[in-house]
Amino acid sequence: MSEKVWFITGTSRGFGREWAIAALDRGDRVAATARSVDSLSDLVDTYGDSIHPLQLDVTDRDAAFAAVAEARDRFGRIDIVVNNAGFGHFGMIEELTEQQARAQIDTNVFGALWVTQAALPIMREQGSGHVIQVSSIGGITAFPNVGIYNASKWALEGMSQALAQEVSQFGIHVTLVEPAGFSTDWSGSSAQHSDKLPAYDPVRAAAAEARKSRQQTQGDPVATRGAILEVVDAEKPPLRVFFGDTPFGIASADYASRIATWETWQPVAVRAQGGEQ
């Protein structure tokens, strides 16, 4: 089947919007969600009945299930789910309020969980499907001042790796897309910020400088249109894929450091089990 039906959350801007356009431009159909469907009016004007706008706050489980059901009723099937809705929270761990921490996890983890749970019975019935989870390089490593964001993406990574093993027998694929710095407004108006404790000002300044050195230029989300189509069209799509040229180096260095540490401390690990080394 050449034509695919997508269900994409967070299509008002960023990756969600660009990937919806990529799908629509090639003749696919898209159920596009946003907190306000007014933000999708230009897409509806351009693509007509090929796009079905849906108002959705992904933290509302009942609403997520209802939106997925409506999309299936409208288009007859769902081939690709893209869990893109999310935001970044900036704040040191000590600076986080309970509400801020819960809001980050509710959207970035539970929002993806509810939509995924709603779509899986449809995909199992079809015997095919592809769940795209928008993670981050921050989903496999961690940086100061975005610890709760890292926590949300690490949770998404673990959940999705388990999910991939659970649903492969049903013909369902799972892919974690792990971008680095792109001009998606992740750190702009969509971001949330904790009140700053002055004690952390030097740490904050150092973290900002390190971020600048890691990412000299911001990636263009438009350029990811072709890349996401390659992923969803692949016969054997990857469980994980980086978007951008910097994540591979960051991940390689981090994992090399982990392996070296584990190796150094392996004698202690063995003794902890009652063994000799």
Provide structural commentary.
This protein is of the alpha/beta class and 277 residues long. It has 2 domains: 5-245, NAD(P)-binding Rossmann-like Domain (Rossmann fold); 249-277. It contains 9 helices and 9 strands. It has helices at 14-25, 41-47, 61-75, 98-126, 147-167, 201-214, 224-233, 247-264, 266-272; strands at residues 5-8, 29-34, 51-55, 80-83, 89-90, 129-134, 172-179, 192-193, 240-243. The strands form 2 sheets. Strands 3-2-1-4-6-7-9 form a 7-stranded parallel β-sheet, with helices on both faces. The protein has a two-stranded parallel ribbon with strand order 5-8. α1 links the parallel β1 and β2. α4 runs parallel beside α5 (147-167). The longest helix has 29 residues, at 98-126.
Search tags:
Rossmann fold, 48% helix, 277 residues, seven-stranded parallel beta sheet, 9 helices, two-stranded parallel ribbon, alpha/beta, globular
Shape: globular
Strand proportion: 5-15%
What fold name stands as the CATH topology of the largest domain? Rossmann fold
**Going across the major beta sheet, what is the strand order?**
3-2-1-4-6-7-9
Order of helices and strands: EHEHEHEEHEHEEHHEHH
**Separation, N- and C-terminal Cα atoms:** 57 Å
CATH architecture of the largest domain: 3-Layer(aba) Sandwich
Under CATH at level 1, the class of the largest domain stands as Alpha Beta
